[in-house]
Amino acid sequence: MIREKQKVCRQSHFPSEGKTVDVLPYQHNVTLVTWAQFPEWLTPDQAAFLTGHSLDYIQWMIEDGCVECDLNGLLWKPDLALFQESLADVLSWSA
Q1: 62 within 8 A of 80, measured Cβ to Cβ
Q2: What is the largest distance, in Å, between two alpha-carbon atoms of the chain?
Q3: This prediction's pTM
Q4: Angle in degrees, CA 23, 17, 76, rounded to 5
Q5: Which long-range contacts link 49-56 to residues 24+ away (Cβ below 8 Å)?
Q6: What is the pLDDT of residues 17-75, one digit of tens each?
Q7: Pairing between strand 19-22 and 75-76?
Q8: Cα–Cα distance between 1 and 38 in angstroms, integer?
Q9: What's the CA gap between 84 and 53, in Å, rounded?
Q10: In this structure, are residues 44 and 59 in contact, taking their beta carbons and an 8 Å threshold?
């Protein structure tokens, strides 16, 4: 029996703006090789691709200080990885 993969989509609330957006709006496979091929400093588009988050969510992460961002608007990949690990831990607690 073939099962279709279900799209996992969780909602995240931006308290300061009073809006809700999808945390994982689309699904794709990013491997460790894919992750390693990207530079240490990522554009928001690259961060969105690697994490599966929307650009709105990436912008919120920057504004809220969840990830390190330089003066050119680039995100530090190790901070992004740490945020992803922490998010996965928190989401597993509610499962």
Answers
A1: no
A2: 52
A3: 0.66
A4: 50
A5: 50/80, 51/80, 51/84, 52/24, 52/25, 52/26, 52/27, 52/28, 53/23, 53/24, 53/25, 54/21, 54/22, 54/25, 56/21
A6: 555 555 554 556 788 888 889 999 999 999 999 988 899 999 998 888 888 889 999 99
A7: unpaired
A8: 37
A9: 10
A10: yes
Look-up: residue for tokens 């831990």? 89
Q: Where are the domains of the chain?
A: 29-93
Q: How many CA atoms lie within 13 A of 86 on its CB side?
A: 9
Which residues, 6+ apart, have CB-to-CB distance to 38 below 8 Å? 46, 50, 77
Burial grade of 76 (CB within 10 A; 0-12, 13-18, 19 or more) = middle
- Quote the pLDDT of residue 74: 93
User: What backbone torsions phi and psi does residue 85 show, to the nearest 5 degrees?
Assistant: -65, -45
Residue listed under structure tokens 């599966």:
52
Contact 22, 51 (CB under 8 A): no
